[in-house]
Structures are given as structure tokens and as C-alpha cells.
Sequence to fold (216 residues):
Amino acid sequence: MFNKLLFFVLLLITTSLTASAQYNWALKSDKDGIKIYTSTVANSKFKALRIECNYQSTLTQMVATLLDLKTRPEWIYHTKSIRLVKQVSPSELFYYSEINLPWPAQNRDFVAHLITTQDENTKVVTMHGPVAPTMVPERDGIVRVKSSLSKWLIFPLSKNEVKVEYTIQLDPGGAIPAWLTNLFASEGPTQSFKALRLQLKKPEYRSASVPFIKNY
Fold:
């Protein structure tokens, strides 16, 4: 149970990622249509993760779901709180989130600068979220995540199907041993991405409109 909860420290933080060519991905799990890859990272004791899954969804449906901060706790496990810090534009915002972890681990929190773009030709959507660790004051008893690299890529496969590729590498900070963090590299992502599949079926997302995203 503990290792599952620690996974969501990784999954919730969306930050910019350099090209994946530097990684040597190995398939860790393939079930329920969700593929989980891991890779060792030079000069880091924590493994990088890549999660791939196809969804019956339009591009706007998927982006609307991912940008809906208030409902993220419904599908990203063990989010204690999440709030908007600053809305820069429809496609750019800052948000704060705290992740609830069981004793003896301390809760983690982070501030992400979430930026969504779309390629005009391919229609591929990219969501970067570089951390902004000093934008919100740190709180006693909570470990601030200050080092993270991640990226969402959403590829249109047809009018009503997309492929999602999520890649993340980070140091969760504090006293979490790497071997324990790396244990959850299969089951935790599977649970969350299955929950995302259910979230997409809700009426408010099926009919969603995102002004800066064009469907395939």
C-alpha cells in the first residue's frame, strides 16, 4: 500500500522533459491496455517512468479532463488538495497540490506551471509543467518537490481515439528510499490510468470545448 501511494508523488507533477533518447526503456508491465516502462537514469538513484495508453477520446475531451484541476483528485490517487494559483491564459496556469502520504512518510507538495500547446500540422498536444518551487511559501511538515522532469504527449489516432504517453523523472526529496519508490512502477500507474479512462466518460468532458485545441 505504501509503495502505491508514493507513486502518485510522481504522477501528479507534470514538468518539462528532455528528449527520451537518453533513456533505455524496459517494459515493466503490460495489462489492461496500459504499458509501463522504466529506465535507470545517470547520476540518479530514482528510475524514470513512461506510461502509454490508448483512449476512446477526442483531443479536446482529453485536454479538458487533464486541465480540470478540481476533479483531478477523483482519478489521481491520494491527492489531499489542489488549487489554482494563477491563470495566465486559457492554455497556461500555475497550480499547487499536496499529496497525502501515510505515516511515517511526510506529505509532499509542489507548484506546477502547466503549459499546453498543439502542433498545427500533426495536431499532437504537448503538456509541460515545470515546477515553480518558490511561487508558494513552503509549509512546516510538508516536503516540497523541487526537482522534476515530465511531459504529457497526446497523439490523435483517429477522430475518437488518442494515444497518451506520459514520461516522468524526479527526486521526491526527503527520506524516501529509492528502492521503495521504484517498487511501485507498475501497479500504481495502472490504477490511475484506469481511473482516467472512467473520468473521460463523464458528460462534462464528452461535450467539452477547449478553444486553443483543434480535434483531429
Summary: The first helix runs from residue 2 to 12. Confidence is low (pLDDT under 50) at residues 2-21. Helices lie at 2-12, 59-67, 72-75, 178-183, 187-199, 203-206. Residues 15 and 130 are 4 Å apart (CA to CA).
